[in-house]
Amino acid sequence: KWVEYAFTPYFSVSESSATVLKEGYSDGVVISKYDDVDETIINTVKQFNKTLAHLSKQTIYSHELLDSGLVEVTYSNGTKVIINYSDDTFNYGDKTIESQDYLIIEQ
User: Other C-beta atoms within 10 Å of 87: how many?
Assistant: First the structure.
């Protein structure tokens, strides 16, 4: 959902592994040992900074469900982000959005 709303990615990590923590209270958040997920966190933050960070200061102008699992978010600067939550590939105009991926159209 951070892509859909241009939220800064957030991670809960710990020093212990998830198997040690599985009996603890985590408010529904999966907590992983940092050493097990550090590359994922670094790559996710880099991707966000490269593609979506500029939208975090924009207002969402519209938010539409285009099809089952396909959402289009339009921001105040005209940028559109189309998110494909489905297991199918979608065509959006002349672009293809793979399953579990997104497309950014800058204005």
Answer: 8
